[in-house]
Write a structure and sequence with these properties.
The protein is of the alpha+beta class. 21% of the residues lie in helices and 22% in strands. It has one domain (55-275): Beta Barrel (Sortase, Chain: A), CATH 2.40.260. The chain has an eight-stranded mixed beta barrel. It is elongated, with a radius of gyration of 28 Å.
């Protein structure tokens, strides 16, 4: 007699639709982390790419506007620049400010604040605040940017301009023609001024005249509130061995250092060598 074999059919029991609270919280946490990561990435792209793109375009447009107003041929200017021409026109103007953050300006006070003790000797009337009045060119860096009065972030530096410290000398004048610019973001015109060396030319042009300065000293790092670097006779108050002891026609470039920080300030000094 054959034994009967019973076949058992497996039964799959599905759990209810409820998820465990821990798993749900983990899922929400992962979604939040991904969303935050995307937002941070977009912010970084905006700061490091989009602001540079916009600011550079606006700055170059302003250079063209100034040159048209001065009736200067862009073709002729390009030829002079590529061949190492050493002349640029310049007209009066003076103003000072400081900026914290990645503005590139030393914090001689606080952002957009005038620097006490920074004075220049300028017989020309000062341009209107935030108004572009000169063009700065640095052949070694391939840099061409407008110079505007003041160093406020919103009104000047974030446009990709070099900002003229209020109270410092006008271009070509005896005293210190002091400028600030962003090291990173918003056009970052002064990003590579650390590459400048003794003898490099810096050209400044305004409606009236052209000036050529020659790099003389580089102060790799100083405190944000070292106002001595933009005084009429520039000398660091933090590192007194850097600077000058006699009046002259100086140009000062300031920006933040190290890159992507505002911890210290990088300073480049140049002396006037010719004008026409």
């Amino acid at each position: 007699m054959r034994a009967r074999v019973r076949e058992r059919v497996p039964v799959v029991v599905q759990s209810g639709g409820r998820s465990r609270p821990g798993a749900r919280a983990l899922w929400l946490g992962a979604e939040t982390a991904v969303t935050c990561g995307v937002l941070v990435l977009l912010l970084v792209v905006h700061q490091l790419w989009w602001t540079n793109r916009e600011a550079r375009a606006e700055a170059l447009d302003q250079v063209r506007v100034l040159e048209r107003e001065w009736d200067i041929s862009p073709e002729g200017e390009s030829e002079g620049e590529s061949s190492g021409a050493s002349e640029v026109e310049s007209s009066g103007g003076s103003e000072v400010e400081s900026s914290a953050g990645a503005s590139g300006a030393p914090s001689v006070g606080s952002s957009a604040e005038a620097s006490p003790g920074a004075s220049g000797e300028s017989g020309a009337a000062s341009p209107s605040p935030s108004a572009a009045f000169a063009v700065l060119r640095i052949p070694r860096l391939g840099l061409t940017v407008p110079v505007a009065e003041g160093v406020s972030k919103r009104g000047v530096l974030d446009k990709g301009y070099a900002g003229h410290y209020p109270g410092t000398a006008s271009p070509g004048s005896v005293g210190n023609f002091a400028l600030a610019g962003h090291r990173n973001t918003h056009g970052e015109p002064f990003r590579y001024i650390n590459r400048l060396r003794d003898g490099d030319e810096i050209l400044v042009r305004t409606r009236a005249r052209s000036f050529v300065y020659r790099v003389d000293l580089v102060l790799a790092s100083t405190a944000p509130r070292d106002v001595g670097v933009i005084r009429a006779v520039p000398r660091s108050l933090v590192r007194p061995s850097y600077g000058y002891s006699a009046p002259g026609a100086y140009l000062t470039l300031t920006t933040c250092t190290p890159e992507f920080t505002s911890t210290y300030r990088l300073v480049v000094w140049a002396k006037l060598v010719s004008a026409r």
